[in-house]
Amino acid sequence: MDKGLKRPRVCFYTSDFGYGHAARDIALIRELQKALHAEVVVRTGTPAAFMSCSLPGVEVIPGPNDPGVVMDGTAVDRERTLVAVERWVASWEDCIAGEKIFLCDRGIDLVLSDIAPQPFLAAEELGIPSLGISNFTWHLIYTRLFGKNELTDRIAEAYRAADSALLLPLHEPIAVFKNRQEVGLVVRPVTRNRMEIRRLCGLSEEQPLVYLGGGQSLDPTVFRGVRSALAGCTLLVPSWTDLPGAVRIPPGETETQDWIAACDLVVSKPGYSTISEAIRAGVPMALFGREGFAEDDYLIRGVRDMGIGREVPVSAVLDGSWADNLESLMGLRENFGKIDGLFKRDGTKECSSIIGEIL
After folding, report:
1. DSSP track, 154-194
2. What is the DSSP letter of 44?
3. How far, in Å, are 76, 83, 260 from residue 69 at the CA level?
4. What are the pLDDT digits (tens) for 266-278?
């Protein structure tokens, strides 16, 4: 890049709901820095510390973007979620006014959002190009929960303000965006080999290692009955989960995709980043759905139809009986050679190229 040229400035709004949006956004931000020499500033809530540790030198500004859903065990609490969404949409006028000032003060050239809707309205009012990047929208989630109403109409209006959307594999229709383009997987590449991680777990190559993940939206105590599954394998759990007999990913570890790649099976709620990291590493999956969360239907169906995973009941995860089919589930690894070429494409580079054309 010519040193005399101004570096493009990008503001990335990352969803506050869990860490999955943050994981894939980290992959894209790293590519934008490398390929486009972009100056990136991140606006996010809960994942702020994780993103800051993962992106040294990138300014990460903590602040709420979206409320997601409120979980009650493995089901969405509709009443509490509705209260949160009503309060959120009521705050948009002040939020948009504040973001307009911020975007102007920073001289932002492009707004990216995964997948908070209100930044698109701020960008539209300023004439700044904007892109959505996701596999689902909050419009889908809330319409399934509450039906079509003033809240969901307002969210749809905000998404329509975006110039376009980059659709990640296993996406819902995302028809609410006026322009849409499919891309490959956006996922952090593995940085350490399988045996390096397995040595840290005290395991040989032959001993089965299973990742048990629920994401931060689920209370870790829902897995307390899972210890009965330990007879046939070693469980790997997130750093915030305390499960007797399991190996924990070390607190402060940012490159958790390395640990997924060292496993023989993933047992998890259908978190997009966990699924994409498992696909990239060729690790089969057993997935359990969350009642009331529409995204799960698309993800579970896609994984099942490719033959690289199966759906398991929540009850089987809680009592550990999923492990009765451990060998069969791990055997699904052989089907990765047959998956669609879309999943073998580098969506991170594709997104960066599209963004580069806009900038």
Report:
1. HHHHHHHTSSEEEEPTT----TTSSSEEE--B--PPP-S-H
2. E
3. 7, 10, 26
4. 999 999 999 999 9
